[in-house]
Design brief:
Strand content: under 5%
Organism: Chitinophaga eiseniae
InterPro entries: Globin-like_sf, Globin/Proto
GO molecular function: heme binding; oxygen binding
Mean pLDDT: 90
Shape: globular
Distance between the termini: 40 Å
Protein name: Group III truncated hemoglobin
Length: 121
């Protein structure tokens, strides 16, 4: 049986593996390799803080993901298939390592966030 996500180290496993996959993905990789010049040393800890706050309410994340993604959308139009592929890779990464209420919550919140972003762009 797989463990549930319980701490920052668990989130780091998901974030590191997920972004490792996404960089070379033919559907969404372009956002991370061509559209935006990402400083991975800064981005990965930010994403860990974001998800840690989503799951465990740490208050460590400061930022506005919607504004960030709106700016990206203006550079390269995001479409439903981009969000769907992002979610597919994200869920796949979580499911590879974890199962339980926090794993389910992380996937549910990702879908909710993606839905809101699509509606507001």
């Amino acid at each position: 049986m797989k463990p549930d996500l319980t701490n920052k180290a668990d989130i780091r496993i998901v974030v590191d593996e997920f972004y490792g996959k996404i960089k070379s993905d033919p559907v969404v990789g372009i956002f991370f390799t061509k559209v935006v010049a990402i400083n991975w040393e800064a981005h990965l800890p930010t994403m860990c803080a974001f998800w840690e706050n989503v799951l465990f309410y740490t208050g460590e994340y400061e930022g506005n993901p919607l504004d960030t993604h709106r700016k990206i959308h203006l550079q390269y139009h995001t479409r439903p298939e981009h969000f769907n592929r992002w979610l597919e890779l994200f869920d796949e990464t979580i499911d590879r390592h974890y199962a339980g209420p926090n794993a389910d919550k992380m996937k549910y919140r990702a879908k909710a966030i993606a839905t809101v972003m699509q509606q507001k762009m």
